[in-house]
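We were asked to recover a plausible sequence for a given structure. The inputs and outputs are reproduced exactly as logged, with field labels preserved.

PROBLEM: sequence recovery
POSITIONS: 367
GIVEN STRUCTURE:
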């Protein structure tokens, strides 16, 4: 596929959308506007759709993960404080890059992404790439300027630490004293669009695994948790993991592959999950990491104002958890639930935070 169809999503769904047809070098072959029922450019083309950046949160993150799915999950966890919706309702896309290098992450509501794709389908097309307009804008070379490009009623703004689309009157506020360098000539804006279409920084359509990122918030698959903790004792398990077994299906196949790679000599056809549980069961606390984790999840089940931020097993087998909760009574309810399951919680630190408390705890046998 050597040609690209570039479509700029209109501000109003019923309005026609500007489009360009490009060859592999970015030469404009055709241009026009298209709406539902209009004839579309024929031929095999990749369809790139520029969508409103007002609906997309873009940040730069650094994640270390074995796979893209794990990277997306870790990035979603890192960004959870700046996201308004529940994680399972979101889709996160990462820009290409080395696992240890900072990468761009774009997050949007899954329903919004599906709405955009459905709109493209009304044209008789299928979107191959969805790219927020804020990432069409080039990043400036220095931190004393921001670049601004207007797309209809919104302005996309890009700085070294900034990537957003806002109403025009908010641009000076985002610039925060930096010089705003607008790109205004239509020819220059078109060239930016063409460059982005030929080499998109990322794609909000993340394929069949797009729901995997949300699974970190509602993950209750003890086998996957056991495998991660048993093989990587210093791994911090993603925050609110452990609430919904259904969301774990998206991660189950990947976890099996990961476990097979982590257990050299595992016979073909053997169950890597069983091996993970066996190894986890050999580690402290009593019953193993997996059993203690399941007990903690069970104890937290009825405490809606408490969240698990981290779960760590160190080299000596000590299992530590970081919890956030609203009231001191929340921790006591969790402690009682753990005690009923044969486990104890030892407080290392408890500190106040906005809206409640954060506690670092050690999980062990009931005293």
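RECOVERED SEQUENCE:
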């Amino acid at each position: 596929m050597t040609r690209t169809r570039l479509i700029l999503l209109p501000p109003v769904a019923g309005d026609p959308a500007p489009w360009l047809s490009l060859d592999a070098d970015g030469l404009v072959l055709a241009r026009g506007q298209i709406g539902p029922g209009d004839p579309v450019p024929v031929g095999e083309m990749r369809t790139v759709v520029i969508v409103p950046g007002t609906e997309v949160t873009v940040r730069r993150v650094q994640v270390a993960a074995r796979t893209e799915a794990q990277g997306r999950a870790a990035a979603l966890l890192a960004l959870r404080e700046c996201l308004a919706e529940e994680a399972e309702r979101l889709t996160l896309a990462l820009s290409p890059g080395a696992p240890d290098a900072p990468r761009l992450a774009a997050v949007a509501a899954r329903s919004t992404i599906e709405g955009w794709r459905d709109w493209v389908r009304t044209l008789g097309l299928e979107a191959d790439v969805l790219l927020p307009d804020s990432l069409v804008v080039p990043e400036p070379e220095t931190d004393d300027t921001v670049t601004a490009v207007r797309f209809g009623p919104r302005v996309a703004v890009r700085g070294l630490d900034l990537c957003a689309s806002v109403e025009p009157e908010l641009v000076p506020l985002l610039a925060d004293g930096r010089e705003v360098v607008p790109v205004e000539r239509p020819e220059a804006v078109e060239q930016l669009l063409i460059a982005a279409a030929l080499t998109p920084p990322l794609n909000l359509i993340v394929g069949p695994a797009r729901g995997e990122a949300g699974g970190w918030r509602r993950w209750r698959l003890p086998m996957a948790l056991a495998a991660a903790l048993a093989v990587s004792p210093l791994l911090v398990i993603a925050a609110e993991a452990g609430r919904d077994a259904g969301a774990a299906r998206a991660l189950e196949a990947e976890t099996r592959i990961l476990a097979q790679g982590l257990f050299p000599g595992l016979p073909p056809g053997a169950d890597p999950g069983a091996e993970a549980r066996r190894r986890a069961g050999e580690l402290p606390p009593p019953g193993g990491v997996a059993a203690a984790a399941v007990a903690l999840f069970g104890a937290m089940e009825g405490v809606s104002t408490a969240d698990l931020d981290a779960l760590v097993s160190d080299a000596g087998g000590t299992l530590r958890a970081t919890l956030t909760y609203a009231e001191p009574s929340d921790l006591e309810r969790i402690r009682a639930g753990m005690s009923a399951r044969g486990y104890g919680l030892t407080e290392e630190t408890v500190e106040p935070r906005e809206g409640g408390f954060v506690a670092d705890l050690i999980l062990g046998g009931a005293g």
